[in-house]
Design brief:
Blueprint: H1 2-5, H2 11-19, H3 22-26, H4 34-45, H5 52-59, H6 64-73, H7 78-89, H8 100-110, H9 112-126, H10 131-139, H11 149-153, H12 161-176, H13 183-194
Helix pairs in contact: 2-4, 4-5, 4-9, 5-7, 5-9, 6-7, 8-9, 9-10, 12-13
């Protein structure tokens, strides 16, 4: 399956497999082989290498359970099954009307590589131009959240789940502020929440 999907233009072969009923037997969840041609075009347009897992996701409908099931059938590694599950579970998360803040927040949370997967998969689903989103993934380097658990503990919060809740709350605020607040501002926000 990987060899077919990594061909320079696998769409005609996959379409033929669908017409002959082979795809139903091999990949019963493959209901969108037509999207593959669009995905290959977008990979070429963005000069992005072919990827068997992304191309597999393009022809599938399903969710994480689908990825786990197929992972066993196709003998995918745990990492490959996990990535396939991520793509299937969050398909449709990008759109050309996403603001730059939302794009950066998504890249920060999931990483630029998975964001690019979504841009390509979602573009193959609806055909909308996502070149601005692609540029964001290429141009923006996410920064590191300036606080750690020790900062919460230093304010007298007991070690445990509450520490994580405070950190997450400040991190969400920091992301909503477009990653601009520095360490001092984040500490001030943390102190406000703790008090």
């Amino acid at each position: 399956t990987s060899r077919i999907l990594l061909a320079p233009d696998p769409a005609p072969v996959v379409e033929m497999m669908a017409e002959k009923g082979v795809l139903d037997h091999l990949l019963p969840r493959a209901t969108g082989p037509g999207r593959l041609a669009t995905l290959v075009r977008l990979e070429n347009e963005f000069d992005h290498p072919a990827d068997a897992i992304r191309r597999l996701a393009a022809i599938l409908e399903g969710d994480r359970a689908t990825a786990i099931e197929l992972g066993g059938t196709l003998r995918l590694s745990r990492k490959e099954s996990g990535r396939l599950g991520d793509i299937l579970a969050y398909r449709g998360q990008t759109n050309p009307r996403m603001g730059i803040r939302d794009q950066r927040a998504m890249i920060y949370r999931i990483g630029a590589d998975l964001f690019r997967d979504f841009v390509l998969i979602d573009g193959s689903d609806d055909g909308d131009d996502r070149s601005e989103l692609w540029r964001t993934a290429d141009d923006w380097s996410p920064v590191s959240f300036p606080l750690k658990g020790v900062d919460v503990l230093a304010l007298g919060v007991p070690k445990g789940p509450e520490t994580g809740r405070y950190l997450t709350a400040v991190e969400n605020w920091w992301i909503a502020e477009n990653f601009r607040p520095d360490r001092d501002a984040c500490l001030a926000q943390l102190k406000k929440l703790v008090s």
